[in-house]
Structure formats: structure tokens, C-alpha cells
Amino acid sequence: MNLTRHTTPHGPRWALDGxxxxxxxxxxxxxxxxxxxxxxxxxxxxxxxxxxxxxxAPIEPAQEVWAAxxxxxxSRDAREAESQTGDxxxxxxxxxRPELFFKAAGWRVVAPGSAIHVRSDSxxxxxxxxxxxxxxxxxEIVGYCAGNDVSSRSIEGENxxxxxxxxxxxxxxxxxxxxxxxxxxxxxxxxIRMTIxxxxxxxxxxxxxxxxxxxxxxxxxxxxxxxxxxxxxxxLMTGTCLxxxxxxxxxxxxxxxxxxxxxxxxxxxx
Length: 270
What we know:
With 270 residues, the chain is α+β, with helices and mostly antiparallel strands.
């Protein structure tokens, strides 16, 4: 089942598999329920009317987006190469505790088709395609969506303490186009692809799958929920290993397309 959020003349509204849900449905309410209770809850709010309107990011202002770093070896190698203190990434990669950081408030997330941004004070900026977990308030994984963790490599590489500035700014987080509702056992090995187009030509293409992750979904979620509550649920980006080469940077006018299994998230760059 796919949950999508759309524009309407009366404000945002959710749909399930292309059919409107009742206007009172909210993702917050769904993620307050246990996964066992959520399954019978959704059909009770379904209507017979086909959904329309532009797609919004499948998140509400009440949710936060967090992210995990250095979960793939390729990511570790790339971060080491760019950083003046590269050994810390090896230490994180082999450590028991994962790297977790805040990425975006729900209201700041970019919708499918809307523009992601690159920082004007950074000469090296890249997209990062990531399977993004959707987790309820009980710490149960209920599904996933596609995510783009847009990052400033130059700022992060200058000093790891600059990570928030490298990761958190206007237009740095995109999610969509839907939340695919499924138990995590169904999506352990998910293919991920990314292409970047510039003036109609592909300038980068790469692919991987989540089986290459060092850490499990459950491990990342367990650490995120240590001493931290998410009463309306949370989204967790799980890291990437699709890293464009060091001589590549995003430019205004580029188009980034991310494929996470059957979900396709596309955004222009400005």
C-alpha cells in the first residue's frame, strides 16, 4: 500500500493507492498507533473517490527527519577522502554506536518535483539517495520512502563539527513520492539507483542495494529511540554509498532522479 499526500483547494489531503482517505486522516494519528492496530485502521477511512492534485512530500509538520551516516563502506571511504580528519569516519564505521543526526523538520521537506538547493557558500555539493524509514511512536518500522540527503561536501570536509551546516539548510531534504507501507522483512534488499541530468544529458549514474549496509534497520532505529521520544513518528534516512566523484558538484538546472525500489523521487536543482 502506498500513502501519498496531495494539494487540494481545502489544504493537504492523504490518499491510499490513488484513492482519497477521509479528510480527517493524518499521518500523525496513524503513527501514534501500533503497527498491529494501524493495519485495520486505514481501510476504515478509505473512500471511493480517485485522488488528484499535485504531490506533496509524504510528511506532516509534526514529524522530524533524522539521518544515519557512514552505514556503507563506500560512504566511509568517500568521507575519509574529503575530510581533513578522515580517521574519525573509520572509527564510526566500526563502532557499536552509529552516527545519527537531525536532518529536517517536516515543514521544511521538499516535495517531489520541487527544487532542492545547493549552498551558495559551498563549491562542492552532492545529492545522496537513501531509503528512508517511516517509524511509529512505538519504534516500529511501518514502511519507507525515497529520500535525498543533499549535502555540502566541502563544508563537512573542512571540519566535522560543521556537519549541521553541511546537512541542514533550505532545500537540503526531499522525500517522496509516497510512503510504501510494509514490514521491514519485506524490504531488506532494496535496489537504489540515482541519475543526474545536466542540459538533457546524464552526467552521473549509479546503483546499489540496501543489502550492502553494515547496520540493520532495527539497529539504527533502536539507537535513535534511546532517550528520545517521537510522539508523532519519525523518518530516518539510512545512509548512502552512491557518491559522485570528487570532481563533480551539483549545479543549478540539474535534475536528480532517485529510484528506491518502485518509488521514483525527482527534483530539479536551484
